[in-house]
Request: fold
Amino acid sequence: MQADVARTKAYYASISPSSLCDCAYCRNYRAQIRAAFPKIAAYLGSLGVDIEKPLENSPLEPDEKGMLEYCCCQYVVFGACEPEYRHWIDQVEFRPAASYPGTNIEEAHFVIEFFGIQLSYGA
Ligand SMILES: [Zn+2]
Reply:
């Protein structure tokens, strides 16, 4: 992976909070993700990514225990990444995404994704 960390940081800094998804599930994610998964936040931060500004987080429905799973969390990174790239933090696998929402970005970039993040919801 060759991440352009400075360009990625500038991109995340340019995303205004008011442009982020305002649905309850996304607000729940932003409110908790950094504190709940500090190692993931640090890894993404090392790439220039702000963990509170995902491209996509694919929430399911909250379960009976009040846990909400975000099944596929995706983030834009500037630079290039080989398809075979993998990184592990505890049980969480990171890899370059093959499909993701349109980014409207002209410069070289990729999307990194990870799966199965659970956060409490509605407590
Ligand atoms: Zn949302």
User: Anything to note?
Assistant: Strands lie at 2-3, 67-80, 87-89, 92-96, 109-120. Helices lie at 5-14, 24-36, 38-46. The pocket of zinc ion is lined by residues 21, 23, 25-26 (CB under 6 Å).
